Amino acid sequence: MSEPVQPSPLDRLLTAIRAIIRAEFPQYTYAGLYSYTIQSINSGTGAIDAEPVDTTVPLPGLSNISLSPSLLGDLALATSGSTCLVEFVNADPTRPVVISIGATNFTGTVDASQQMNIGPSASTVNLGAAAMPVARISDTVAVYFPMGTSITIVGVALPPTPGAVSASLQFITDPISNTPLPCAGIIGSGSTVSFS
Amino acid sequence: MSAVTPPTSLDRLLTAIRLIIRGEIPQFTYFGVYEYTIQNVTGQTVDVRPTDTTLSLPSINNVPIFPSILAEAITGIPVGSICLVRFVNADPTRPEVCSITSLSQTSTLDATDTLTFGSTSTTAVAIGGGSAPVGRQGEQVSTVVPLPAPPPTISGIINGTIPFTGTMIGLPPGVTGIITGGFPGVQT
Fold this sequence. Notes:
By secondary structure, chain A is mostly beta strands. Chain A is 8% helix and 37% strand. In chain A, strand 1 (33-41) and strand 2 form a beta hairpin.
């Protein structure tokens, strides 16, 4: 362990030089990218309160800070306890913005004012659990007339045995499979969200 | 208010030291991220002007728009939008737009193989406002068979011997079935 050194005139010079350097770059600290921990979230606006992960860096705690979108008009409702990355716009300590969140958000939104294209080159677009293909306009459906349902008709029997007739004709089963008779169709309407 | 101090020989020294410091870190201005206003849009580049003119930042033309890790692309960026500009490698000749606060007319998210929104833990994926659920292959459908107007005329033979003519006046109230076709490129 080294012996304590007595202050010398050089220490004053060094202190002065360091002060000059600091004064030359007063915004130095705020030109970087910093890791913060999200403490709480405003569920209405999505703004967050956060504290710096590294408490040895002279950074402020942040209150009511907005999340900065990328190019997609993205919005998010973060999860408390997540780590986020914070930058200061124009290296101004009064203008922190969150540019990245390191965990899955509670909600996330991407948007456009007219059209949003999702995966035009992708062979697969998965939404949620991605368990089954989606149906679109013109995709097929198969429906069945359940056994026991009927068509009702009225009319007349013609000669040689004339007379009024009223009958209920029941659907029969497929004589081979003994299942309801199927009929097929297509989806004829849908929303303006297109999958192709 | 303090009195004006006349220049001293130390001022020249201080100025020199400051120049040395600045000269040692010439790219300092180009660390960080800066707020600009979009003045003009040409394809995938924009002309921008700093919002804070007191900063020693240049107005820049033909700044490329740089996507996030999702490789998003946008068109129809509103002129006048606020954006954030950063300089790659702190190089003033390499500005790029990394954030735009306004919605663009068209946004595209793409991937060469699979693009995923949400996961098994996601409770809902809303697309285009999300007003109604989508149908998927294998799911049930329920349809109504409307009786045509006027009711259709039918004719035939009763018991194989009695000619008959009449009108259909009643149909089953509805039929059920399943979706048999779907688009495997989009799965939910």
